[in-house]
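This part of the workshop introduces the protein records we will be handling. The structure tokens are whole numbers drawn from a learned vocabulary of backbone shapes. The record below serves as our worked example for the rest of this section.

===
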Amino acid sequence: MARTQGSHSALTGPRIREAALRLFAKHGYAAVSMRQIAAEVGVQAGALYNYTPDKQALLFSLLQGHMDELLDAWKGEPQGDDPMARLECFVRFHIRFNLQRPEAIFISYMELRNLEPENFTVIEGLRKRYEAVLEGILRDGEAAGTFTVADPAIATRALIAMLTGVNTWYRAQGRLSIDEICSIYWQMVRRSVSAP
């Protein structure tokens, strides 16, 4: 059978990932079939298996790709010299990074439960690496007498949940710019951890 028009290996793989990301975010992983993904890309359903073994592998690839991108992007961020500056950098980075990837953020949280156990373990490990960045900043701030945090591990999860929550309400045409939102959230975070 002839290859579907427009189906070129270097282009089709990324298009499959983009289509899966959109469809998983819109309809949910469980409701999306490989046939729907193929139709979105414009290829035969069987052609998908040249790029991914199955739908689970596709979900895992999307979640792992997102976490790898997040960790790599953080490494490239200019970091402050003291815990307060590093914390501000983290807050602003997290909000900006996430707002540029609303679909990836959505499935990273909502579809985590659909990963098979071994895949979940890998993604959980990557998430813990990212959480360790913030927890390290909080512990350094406590040691320096700059922060007062009852439990750095719980504070880390609470702060990440708060910062990620921006994605649930942010609209590009809203009354606040991303810079303004980052500044407001930074002030809330700073007040929540600052030593008395």
Remarks:
- Residues 1-7 have pLDDT under 50 and may be disordered.
- The radius of gyration is 20 Å.
- Residues 117-143 form the longest helix (27 residues).
